[in-house]
Each structure stands twice: as structure tokens, then as C-alpha cells.
Amino acid sequence: MNAAALTIQRIYLTLTLGNTLAASFIWGINTLFLLDAGLSNLEAFAANAFFTAGMVLFEVPTGAIADGWGRRVSFLLGTATLALSTYLYYLLWQFSAPFWLWAVVSVVLGLGFTFFSGAVEAWFVDALRFSGYEGDLETVLGRGLMVSGIAMLAGSVAGGVIAQATNLGVPFMLRVGVLMVMFVVAFRLMRDVGFTPERKGRPLQATRAVLSASIENGLKNPPVRYVMFAAPFSAGVGIYVFYALQPYLLELFGDPHAYSVAGVAAAIVAAAQVIGGWLAPRLRRLVQRRTTLLILSSVMGAVILITLGFIQVFWLALVLLALWALVTSAGTPVRQAYLNDMIASRQRATVLSFDSLMGSSGGVVVQPMLGRAADVYGYSASLAVGGIIGLVAAPFLLASRRQRHRADQAAAPTDSAQ
Hints:
Elements: H1 3-24, H2 30-36, H3 41-69, H4 71-94, H5 99-114, H6 119-130, H7 137-165, H8 170-189, H9 203-219, H10 222-253, H11 259-284, H12 290-308, H13 314-340, H14 348-377, H15 379-390, H16 393-402
Helix pairs in contact: 1-6, 1-7, 1-8, 3-4, 3-5, 3-9, 3-14, 4-5, 4-6, 4-8, 6-14, 7-11, 7-13, 9-14, 10-11, 10-13, 10-14, 10-15, 10-16, 11-13, 12-13, 12-15, 12-16, 14-15
């Protein structure tokens, strides 16, 4: 990497570190937080579904902001919105608010995350290419996943320990504080380079233009379309599993108030992300096509979940959780690189946001459905059902492979690219 590319990478990793740290303070305890507020399993996962519904509703409009006003503006708006909605979550918990208020604020929380999805990754890839970097994307995106995993490891463990030492609300306030710091950091460091925002008329017109571009460059592009069609199943199940593991592991552990255990579970997922980000470019060298890794990751992850659904031993469940997280994490940078290499710079944020929308739409349906299964049959059975649903992603990835797009066989990472 030249000096300009290294600077871009440092900024990207700094933003990734700070944002993930802030978000992860509550990841290990979020479901416990909702249940402590008086919600049932169905209501807790329905609240999460409203969060993902907010992402579905606002992905395209916020994509218009990223394309028309810039990725930096989108990031700043996301940080401010996420800080505000997190504070509102804290207030709802304080006052044991009715479910409908949780639903409303969850939608706003989803809005906050849509400002990030697509925009940050698009900013990084375009700025990196503009700086003259010509290496592979798996390596640099893998580093981002590793940094994200480290931040998640620290934040999730800290959140669980702090919640047990104080109460479940304190990690939410810590998230608000770190997000405010990240707003200042992004305001000073982040600049749109390699991309010129294009305002496309009024907000409604701009939204329609972004939606049209998403369909034209996403759903109408066969290899991209099939990867997107796999997202509702893989992402929807992944979101549920991450949050369901908190009460599931506490149930196996035998102490419903051992919040630090929930934090450790999230930390294991984070550690797997670090290893997965390191492994991704190395595994990529072993295969000719990217879709080989994507299909293997999808199938192996689903099989592990089905197995996990029949396990009643705490420590064995932790091992399988780590293996599931490692398998899915190793495929993430490869999937990102595959999509980015099939998308033109002008539509990058738009299509990546639409891909996020597809994944979120799966979460809207899958989370309450599996949450209800947990209420009726238990968490173990719901995880097994989730694994079966996750298997549906594999045929779509195979269909993308059959398109034989050149991005599927892009040169594997080399040592010199690192």
C-alpha cells in the first residue's frame, strides 16, 4: 500500500473500531434487557423484528442521502440517530414501557444503522481505489472484520461484566457516550474521495432514483441477484441466533442472572470474527472461485446450528457456537469482495444498501417466527429450525456461481498484496 491508501485504511479501521465498540456494549445483553423490561420472548424478538423492519424501510431513502449528500454525511447522521434511539431504549427500560413504544423506538434504531450500511464500505472501497491501491479486497476487508471482532470482544465482555456489577441499563448509556465521541472523530477525519455526490432532485425523486438503480444494478444483474436472494435466509437466521444465544446459554448455565456469561458468549463470536477475518484471504488462496467458500460457509453454518439445537451441555454449546461464528465469519470478507467486484463505483453504496435491505427483510420474518418457536418448543428447537431455514441460502449461492462472473474467479490474495 502507498501512503494515501494506508491513511484511508487507518481511518476506516478507526471508524470500524469505534462504531463496533459502541454497538457491542449491548450485544451480549440485549435480549436479557428486553426480557427484564417485562417483554415475553415473542415480544422481545418482535421488537428486534421492528428494528430490522426499520432497516428495510429506510435502506433506500438513506441510500439516497449517501449518494446525494455524501457517505460522510450519512455516517454522521447514523451516529447521531443511533445515539438518540439508544438513549430512548434506556428510558423505555427505566419506565417499563408498553410494547408499542418499544416497536416505535426499534424502528428508529433501525434507521440509525441504515445510515451506516453500504455507505461506510462504499466510502472505503472507492477511496482506496482512488488512492491507487490495486490489491485484493479480501485482505483489506478481512482486516476490517478483525478490528470489528476485537472491538466486539472488548465491548461485549465489558457490557456483560458492567451489567452484572451495576444494572442492564448502564451498557446502553456507555454506547451513547462512545457514539458521541465517534461523531467528532468522523467529522474531523472522514472525507469523500474517489466519489462525487450527485443530488437527484427532491427527496422522493432521489429515493425513486436510488430504488431504480438498486434494481437495475442489483436484482437485474443475475450473479448479484442470487447473492441477494440468499441474504434473507442467512442474515435473518444469523440475527436471531446471535440474540437467542444469550438466554439459551444462560438456561444451559443454570443462572438467569449471570450476565457476564452472555457477554462471554458474544465475545466468543467476536474472537471468531478476528480469526475469520485473518483466515478469509488465506482460505481464498486454496480455491479457484469465491462462491466455493460462500457455499461451504453457508452449509456448514446451517449444519452446526441444527446440531446445536440438540445440545444440552453448556461447554459443548460454547464450542459449537465458536465454530458456527468462525465458519460464518470466514465467508464474510469473501462475500463482500465478491459483491464489490461486481458493482460499479457510482452505484456501490446504493447496491450494498439494497443488499443489506434484503438481509434485514429476512430478519423481519425469521426473528418473530423463531422467537415464537422458542416460546412453544424451547431455544434448542428454535436453533435447529433456524439451521434448516439457513440451508435455503445455499441453492441461491450455487445459482450465482453458475453465472460464471469474472468476479467469482478474481485473483486470490497474494502475500505481496498484504
